[in-house]
C-alpha cells in the first residue's frame, strides 16, 4: 500500500506542478507587488512518525506575522495581505505543497500537519494521526474549511482551537488513518474540489 500511494502521489503532484508553473509565476509577481517580503512562507510542521519538516505556502500575511500574533489565523486577521485573502479563500496558498509531496514530506491526501506547539499537546491516541504522511487535503480540512471564520467568533480563539477544534479534526481524520486506500483518496480529492468550487460561486 505505501508504494502504490507514493506512486499515486507522484502521478498527481508532478504533472500538476508543471501545469501550474505559469500560475505560480503570476501569483509570485502579484505577492511581490502587493507587499514587502518573500513569495513563499515556510513553517515547521510535524509529519509522519513525528518527524519535523518545512511546509511550503504562498505568503498570505505580512512579514514576521507569527511574532505579531498566534500561530492560528482568526477571522479577518489584520496580518493577512490583500492578495492573501483571495489566496486563502480558494486555498491557492496551499498549492506549493505539491513540492512537499514530490519531496516525500507529504501526500496529496492525509491528516493536515500541525505545528510542533500543538502536537506536543496530543494524547497518545491522537498521535496515531502521525502514523501516516500528512496531506494537502483531508476529511477534516473539508469539514472545517471555515476554520478561520469559526475561530473569529470565539472569545478565546486559541483555547477553542486547542480544546475543541484539534480533537474534532483529529477524530475526523482518524477515520482516514484507519481506512487508507487509493479509492478513498480519490473520493476525498473529489470532495475537496467540490468544496472549493462552491466557494467560487
Summarize the structure.
The protein has 201 residues and is mostly helical. The chain has 9 helices and 4 strands.
What does this 3D model show about the protein?
The chain is mainly α. The protein has helices spanning 2-19, 21-34, 82-89, 97-103, 116-119, 139-143, 147-152, 157-178, 182-199, and strands at residues 40-46, 52-58, 107-109, 135-137. The protein has one domain (2-195). Helices cover 51% and strands 10% of the residues. It has a two-stranded antiparallel sheet with strand order 1-2. Strands 3-4 form a two-stranded parallel sheet. A hairpin with a 5-residue loop joins strand 1 (40-46) and strand 2 (52-58). The longest helix has 22 residues, at 157-178.
Indicate how many domains the architecture comprises.
1
The number of helical runs is 9
Strand order of the largest sheet: 1-2
User: What percent of residues are in strands?
Assistant: 5-15%
Secondary-structure-based class equals: mainly alpha
Mean pLDDT: 91
Helical residue percent band: 40-55%
Rg calculated over all Cα atoms: 16 Å
Total strand count, please?
4
String of helices and strands? HHEEHHEHEHHHH
Cα end-to-end separation? 37 Å
Low-confidence stretches: none
Specify the overall morphology.
globular
Main beta-sheet annotation? 2 strands, antiparallel
Amino acid at each position: 500500500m505505501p508504494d502504490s500511494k507514493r506512486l499515486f502521489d507522484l502521478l498527481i503532484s508532478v504533472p500538476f506542478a508543471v501545469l501550474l508553473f505559469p500560475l505560480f509565476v503570476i501569483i509570485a509577481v502579484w505577492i511581490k507587488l502587493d507587499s514587502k517580503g518573500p513569495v513563499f512562507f515556510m513553517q515547521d510542521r510535524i509529519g509522519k512518525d513525528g518527524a519535523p519538516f518545512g511546509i511550503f505556502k504562498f505568503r498570505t500575511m505580512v512579514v514576521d506575522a507569527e511574532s505579531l500574533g498566534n500561530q492560528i489565523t482568526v477571522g479577518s486577521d489584520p496580518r493577512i495581505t490583500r492578495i492573501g485573502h483571495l489566496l486563502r479563500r480558494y486555498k491557492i496558498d496551499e498549492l506549493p505543497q505539491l513540492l512537499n509531496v514530490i519531496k516525500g514530506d507529504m501526500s496529496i491526501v492525509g491528516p493536515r500537519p500541525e505545528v510542533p506547539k500543538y502536537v506536543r499537546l496530543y494524547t497518545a491516541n491522537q498521535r496515531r494521526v502521525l502514523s501516516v504522511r500528512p496531506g494537502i487535503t483531508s476529511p477534516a480540512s473539508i469539514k472545517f474549511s471555515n476554520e478561520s471564520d469559526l475561530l473569529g467568533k470565539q472569545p478565546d480563539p486559541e483555547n477553542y482551537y486547542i480544546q475543541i477544534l484539534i480533537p474534532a479534526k483529529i477524530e475526523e481524520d482518524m477515520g482516514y488513518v484507519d481506512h487508507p486506500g487509493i479509492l478513498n483518496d480519490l473520493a476525498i480529492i473529489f470532495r475537496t474540489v467540490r468544496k472549493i468550487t462552491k466557494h467560487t460561486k
